[in-house]
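Quick one, tokens below. Sequence please?
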């Protein structure tokens, strides 16, 4: 790092967003011959954040996300730049998809559900997931008038208004919970699924809009670009390959773990960061790739109003419990790639994934690997139970739902406390206010899952945007 000048960019947070920002800054600095230093500080003793893969006894166990959406290009592009695109794998074609628990029974998600909207009536009519009344209400969506005002509303309100409350509670809500672990009656439609509102505005309804889009696609008009990958992809060795490759390739970035930033204050030439233990760092640009509540604390001395708005972004705690079984002990019990559980079923489990069904190479022959999830908005208590009590609850519910009686041969528990940001109603407006005030803090940027997308490609893209802004500030616009 001694070959670079006195100007300094500091990234706070070593999750995927922070690492992606460091990668982009390193690349732009090299491409344009800039002379600023880059330092990334991470409070924990490990880089990678929620992307962490444990490999033991032939098992590939994901502690956090196990895949990402391929149609959002940022993650695929990053893998290409890192030289690991050939490691990307798609989900296995098992012939079975996702199931939803209804009254204690697993029912397949009807074929043709696109963005929570039914596009094929025959599979829906045959499904036992909804009652006759619920199906009739969904079919009547074609006749429901569009909302005329532009106010934000919750996803729960929107889906209930258009498709009926039963469709929301037994189909849309569990699918949404698997993404956000949130209360869909509080989550903002504008921040999470703005396209649904756009379809309603443009076409007058969801079914009407989907049918129009299908007709346009068949005629070749307005055809969306097609990805060469299936919708959900991962890496052959697990999602940890992405962050491991990033860390290995950040040779011209000062990477520091166990370095918690306690405060940021204005300095003569930029910002002064105080680390735990009393060390100080001087920085011209600061990129905060932390949870919103951490960023709020760090920005308190710089702008109390920004801090107050960031503290209004709530978070939910979750836990992932991975269990490996002898395949012979669970023969015939594996339900497709997994299933989700509606809140109205009143269980601690929110979802279950058969990891060894979903991707190749997740478990050796003769072994089945299962991932279970607990914790959601309004029901987080189980996350903090001792390991033995949490395992007891998970095993009991698996026995009730799947009939699994035997004990797992391997178990792993990963708790993610205050890890999932919630985009509640009004989120987009609050971000606009934050963005306006952030313009006063030159060289400072917010990035990560708290703002404009919780998915891995979204976080990478936020890191790219923050890095490009910081590079412009450090190299081109400041002499």
């Amino acid at each position: 790092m001694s070959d670079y000048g006195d100007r300094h960019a500091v990234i706070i947070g070593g999750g995927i967003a922070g690492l992606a920002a460091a990668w982009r800054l390193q690349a732009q600095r090299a491409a344009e011959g800039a002379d600023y230093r880059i330092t990334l500080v991470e409070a924990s003793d490990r880089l990678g954040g929620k992307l962490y893969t444990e490999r033991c006894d032939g098992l590939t166990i994901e502690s956090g996300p196990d895949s990402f959406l391929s149609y959002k290009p940022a993650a695929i592009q990053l893998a290409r730049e890192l030289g690991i695109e050939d490691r990307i794998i798609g989900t296995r074609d098992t012939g079975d998809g996702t199931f939803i628990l209804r009254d204690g029974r697993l029912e397949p998600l009807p074929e043709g559900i696109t963005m929570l909207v039914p596009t094929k009536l025959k599979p829906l009519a045959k499904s036992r997931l909804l009652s006759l009344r619920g199906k009739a209400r969904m079919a009547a969506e074609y006749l429901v008038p569009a909302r005329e005002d532009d106010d934000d509303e919750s996803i729960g309100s929107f889906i209930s208004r258009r498709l009926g409350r039963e469709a929301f509670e037994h189909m849309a809500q569990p699918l949404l919970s698997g993404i956000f672990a949130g209360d869909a009656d509080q989550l903002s439609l504008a921040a999470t699924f703005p396209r649904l509102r756009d379809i309603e505005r443009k076409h007058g309804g969801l079914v009407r809009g989907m049918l129009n889009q299908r007709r346009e696609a068949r005629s070749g008009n307005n055809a969306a670009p097609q990805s060469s990958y299936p919708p959900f992809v991962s890496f052959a060795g697990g999602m940890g390959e992405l962050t491991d490759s990033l860390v290995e390739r950040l040779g011209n970035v000062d990477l520091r773990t166990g370095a918690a930033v306690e405060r940021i204050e204005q300095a003569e030439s930029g910002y002064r960061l105080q680390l735990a233990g009393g060390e100080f760092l001087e920085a011209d640009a600061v990129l905060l790739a932390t949870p919103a509540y951490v960023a709020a604390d760090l920005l308190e001395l710089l702008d109390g109003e920004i801090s107050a708005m960031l503290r209004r972004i709530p978070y939910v705690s979750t836990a992932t419990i991975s269990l490996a079984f002898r395949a012979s002990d669970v023969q015939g019990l594996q339900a497709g790639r997994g299933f989700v559980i509606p809140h109205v079923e009143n269980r601690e489990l929110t979802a279950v994934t058969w990891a060894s069904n979903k991707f190749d190479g997740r478990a050796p022959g003769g072994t089945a690997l299962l991932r279970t999830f607990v914790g959601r908005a309004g029901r987080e208590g189980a996350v903090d139970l001792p390991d033995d009590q949490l395992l007891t609850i998970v095993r009991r519910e698996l026995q009730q739902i799947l009939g699994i009686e035997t004990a797992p041969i391997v178990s792993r528990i990963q708790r993610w406390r205050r890890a999932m940001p919630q985009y509640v109603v009004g989120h987009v407006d609050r971000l606009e206010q934050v963005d306006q005030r952030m313009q006063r803090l030159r060289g400072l940027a917010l990035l990560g899952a708290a703002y404009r997308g919780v998915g891995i490609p979204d976080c990478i893209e936020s890191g790219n945007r923050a890095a490009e802004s910081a590079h412009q500030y450090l190299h081109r616009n400041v002499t």
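Residues 456-476 form the longest helix (21 residues). The domain at 7-49+242-313+423-476 is CATH 3.50.50.60 (FAD/NAD(P)-binding domain).
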